[in-house]
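Many introductory courses stop at the sequence. We go one step further.
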Amino acid sequence: MIFILLILSVVAGVLLGKYFGQKEKFAKNLLILSAGFLITICLNEVFPQVYASDIGNLGIFVIGGVLLQMILEALTKGFEHGHFHYHNENNILPMALMVGLFIHAFIEGIPLANETNPFSPYLLGILFHNLPISFILGAFLFNRTGSKASYPSILIVALFALASPFGMLLGNYFNPDWQPYFLAIVGGIFLHISSVIIFESNKNHNINWSKIGLVILGVSLALLMHLFHDHSHVGHHH
């Protein structure tokens, strides 16, 4: 079930990007909404779980996640937070993009090992986060002048869709005691991506009320999930 949800979130995003890819404002709004959701999941769910593990120095792994995401963005050119410019797509090598996105999604999938709850806030954070990235990916691969559903494009989508399920599968073979370390790394990745989207400067540093509203909406959705999620079994079932 969780495998299917992870794949569907990518496919749905890519299809939206294919058919609505010229609507750059829509993609941007989807990103801002997902950033509000993601940073709330990060602070309300991921970090409490990380620091409840009684392992010292996990903050180093959170910082490691932030740095890892910065390195991955050298490959993806900031695809994850909407740095998608329609006129200079040639700056992004499809192979580098594929590798960067695959590693990003693969690492996010590892903490899902043994997760059975399809309404897990962490899982919903990934699903919500996949949509805008996949939207941008779909627009980039299938919505450019003269672009068509070529095999390399379909391969990139397939690899991205399968990356988190692969991570989840591999996570089952890791020592359960490593879970907080992976969660800390992903927490750093989430923190970096969501904060970059939220805090990117507005033109002339004016107050952008629609952006603030979208962030608040994303935060509210995540808080609702937090309220209705059963925290009696926080953590994963090892």
